[in-house]
C-alpha cells in the first residue's frame, strides 16, 4: 500500500484531459478526484479538504471569475492551479488576482503538471508550518 503525497481535485470539462490528469497524478501517488462541472467542484470542496485544485478555465456551469472565488472561500488552505488553453496573459493574471497560486498551459505537459503540483503542495505545507 502506497502513501498519498497529497489530495487533488481535478476540474476539467474535457473527459480525455481529465482522465489523463487523473492517471498521471494517481501514478505519482496523489489521491485524486476528478469532475467536469462547477457544481460538482463546489460539492467536492464542501465535503473534503484538497491540497490542490486544478481548475480548467472552461468549466461548465460557471466562468473562472465566478467559480474561483467561491472555491477559494470554501477551501481556504487549498492551492489552486488554473489550466488555460494558451499563454493568455489576461486569463492568467485574472486567475492569480482571484486566488490561484499558479497556472498550467493546455494541452497538458506531464512533467510541467507534476512540477506545478509539487510546488503547490510545498507552498501549502510551508504555509501550514508558519501557523
Number of domains: 1
The CATH architecture classification is: 3-Layer(aba) Sandwich
Distance between the termini: 31 Å
Helical percent range?
A: 40-55%
Topology pattern, helix = H, strand = E: EHEHEEEHEHEH
Overall average residue pLDDT: 93
- The CATH class assignment is Alpha Beta
Fraction in beta strands: 15-25%
CATH topology: Rossmann fold
Can I get a quick summary?
The model has no long low-confidence stretch (mean pLDDT 93). By secondary structure, this protein is of the alpha/beta class. The strands form 2 sheets. The chain has a 5-stranded parallel beta sheet with strand order 2-1-3-6-7, with helices on both faces. The chain has a two-stranded antiparallel sheet with strand order 4-5.
Task: Describe the structure using short key phrases.
131 residues, alpha/beta, Rossmann fold, five-stranded parallel β-sheet, two-stranded antiparallel sheet, 5 helices, 7 strands
What does this structure look like?
It is a single chain. This protein has one domain (7-130): Rossmann fold (3-Layer(aba) Sandwich), CATH 3.40.50.2300. It is 49% helix and 22% strand. It is built from 5 helices and 7 strands. It has helices spanning 15-27, 38-47, 64-74, 89-97, 110-130, and strands spanning 7-11, 31-35, 52-56, 58-59, 62-63, 79-84, 102-105. A 5-stranded parallel β-sheet has the order 2-1-3-6-7, with helices on both faces. Strands 4-5 form a two-stranded antiparallel ribbon. A hairpin with a 2-residue loop joins strand 4 (58-59) and strand 5. It is globular and about 35 Å long.
Amino acid at each position: 500500500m502506497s502513501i498519498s503525497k497529497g489530495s487533488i481535485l481535478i476540474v476539467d470539462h474535457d473527459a480525455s484531459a481529465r482522465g489523463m490528469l487523473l492517471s498521471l497524478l494517481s501514478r505519482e501517488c496523489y489521491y485524486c478526484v476528478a469532475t467536469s462541472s462547477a457544481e460538482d467542484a463546489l460539492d467536492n470542496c464542501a465535503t473534503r479538504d484538497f491540497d490542490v485544485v486544478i481548475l480548467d478555465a472552461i468549466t461548465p456551469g460557471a466562468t473562472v471569475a465566478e467559480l474561483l472565488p467561491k472555491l477559494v472561500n470554501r477551501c481556504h488552505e487549498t492551492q489552486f492551479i488554473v489550466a488555460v488553453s494558451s499563454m493568455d496573459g489576461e486569463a492568467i493574471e485574472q486567475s492569480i488576482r482571484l486566488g490561484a497560486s499558479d497556472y498550467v498551459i493546455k494541452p497538458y505537459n506531464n512533467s510541467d503538471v507534476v512540477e506545478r503540483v509539487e510546488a503547490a503542495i510545498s507552498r501549502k505545507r510551508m504555509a501550514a508550518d508558519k501557523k
